[in-house]
Amino acid sequence: MVIHSGRLAESIQMPTRLEQEPGPKQLPVTLLSGFLGSGKTTLLKHILKSTDHGLRIAVIVNDMSQLNIDAALIKNHKVSKPTEKVIQLQNGCICCTLRGDLLSELGRLAKQNDIEYVIIESTGISEPMQVAETFTTEFSTAMLQAEDQMADVDDASTKILREIAEMGGLHKIARLDTTVTVIDAFNLLSNFDTAEFLSDRYGRDEIIPEDERTISDLMVDQIEFADVLMINKIETVDSATRERITRLINLLNPNAKVLLSSYSQVDVREIVATNRFDFVRAASGSGWLRSLHEMTLQQTGNGERLAPKPETLEYGINNFVYSARRPFHPRRLFSLDFDQPETEEILKNKRNHPAFASILRSKGFFWLCTRPFQFGEWSQAGAMLTVGCGGPWFAELPDQAWPEDKDVRKSIENDFAGPWGDRRQELVFIGEGVDPDAISALLDGCLISEEEMQQWEGVMCDSKLDREEKMEILADVWEDGWEDWPELDLDDDQDDHTKHRASHALVVGLGHEVGSHKHHNHSH
């Protein structure tokens, strides 16, 4: 397994929900996602032919030729093909990347009284969350503030921005109703067992040079965000494989409605006008988060460990949460994950690894002893692992920087334990026959020892040292070969009393409770 340094993970405020306000009727939208060849276009044609929904539908597609529909099929519907334009703001924030023609087309359709519903067929390489963000209140606010920040934008794109801003944002006139991901049953498992990047499969003409996503990354993104998952081409796999796939899908996205289909033949009422979509639930409803929230002590061959609520280990698909209250040694973790050569060798090594071979997906948060003020984000799909900076631990933030919602604050406080607040390791592993003891043994071997922990605590508890000085000393003691993370933008003079009350347990003479790692819950 290798660390793939993808785009920087940034912490952004979670939108409260997609607005549904009184006033003009909001045009409902279904978003279809899925790899090329999964059956999206066949599903789209099936919807257009159906009389079950009773709606006059507008369809936004990326390739009209692939739809290949005749006049009879579109007699009662409308099909358009906008050319996607991406306007990148100077600040580089992905939340402010405006998909110009999509916005313009939806705005135009919303003004037409004869259109009752819209279906967007996204490209095979798109992430549904990026389209969903277009509908959020926060995205609309960003647009209102964006005009003076844009560089090298043509007049047409500027006009689009102004039109949408004058409407009050896209959410005023259109809303996401359903997000559907179509999955090819025959290729699902093999797409986990590949080291291919998107550019390897689809070519550099289709993928921008900065896009370093892998096939496995994209597939997981599409599965975890959807509220309807359609496992298509089930006739191409046997019943045992079908059950393995279904079980895996349910672990990756436990909130989604799962449909099984051949030739994309499903009840269209499960795809259109379902009113299932909720942005907050979609962004936080993936299986790895559910696993972290639903953990109990389970008896294993190595004693009690925290694990997700027990479920029948049907068809070998299971999950496991690794958790510890001691930081990783940067070199040891680096050696475990990174000391491997080319991607094909990485894939071969993963297939042969006694612990990692079974893992299809892992995600979570980690704590390095040399980076005590920020947590790392860990995301693995297939053979490739992506890590980055996730932001400051909540223990380092003052009360006023915490979310205001009482339930959210309570969830965060539940993550605090001992003198080091919410600092911890929490990684969820999903796969076929995942061995908790084997994975735990490998990761336990990457933790700093009790003696090293005492040395680390001595540095961290020295009130004469500021943050920068502590970081310098820790870097001198423990080799850190990881890529640089952004500097933490916090007041260096911040006293303990300005931090959150749950982090006030820093005392001299810490006992072995901190040195011994424990298992706990998580939220982010």
Molecular structure report:
Helix 4 packs across helix 7 and helix 6 crosses helix 7. The protein starts with a strand and ends in a 9-residue tail after the last helix. It is of the alpha/beta class and 524 residues long. It has 2 domains: 27-284, Rossmann fold, CATH 3.40.50; 287-515, Hypothetical Protein Yjia, Chain: A,domain 2. The strands form 4 sheets. A 7-stranded parallel sheet has the order 4-3-7-2-8-9-10, sandwiched between helices. It has a 6-stranded mixed sheet with strand order 1-16-15-14-17-13, with helices on both faces. The chain has helices at 40-49, 64-67, 71-74, 100-110, 128-133, 137-144, 155-167, 188-192, 198-202, 215-225, 239-252, 279-284, 287-293, 330-338, 343-352, 406-413, 436-444, 450-460, 467-477, 512-515, and strands at 2-3, 27-33, 57-60, 78-80, 86-87, 98-99, 117-121, 174-184, 228-232, 257-260, 295-300, 303-308, 317-324, 359-366, 374-381, 384-392, 425-432. Mean pLDDT is 73; it is low at 1-23, 64-76, 79-98, 287-315 and 494-524. Pfam families: cobW (PF02492), CobW_C (PF07683). InterPro entries: CobW-like_C, CobW/HypB/UreG_nucleotide-bd, P-loop_NTPase, Zn_Chap_cDPG_Synth.
User: What is the CATH topology descriptor of the largest domain?
Assistant: Rossmann fold
Please, how many domains?
2
Rg calc: 24 Å
Largest β sheet strand count, sense and barrel closure: 7 strands, parallel
Q: Structural class of the helices, strands and pairings?
A: alpha/beta
Specify the CATH homologous superfamily of the largest domain: P-loop containing nucleotide triphosphate hydrolases
Shape: globular
CATH architectural grouping of the largest domain: 3-Layer(aba) Sandwich
Strand order of the largest sheet: 4-3-7-2-8-9-10
Beta content: 15-25%
Low-confidence region ranges: 1-23, 64-76, 79-98, 287-315, 494-524
CATH class of the largest domain: Alpha Beta
C-alpha termini separation: 25 Å
What value does the average pLDDT take? Answer: 73
Give me the count of strands.
Answer: 17
The tally of helices reads 20
Helix percentage range: 25-40%
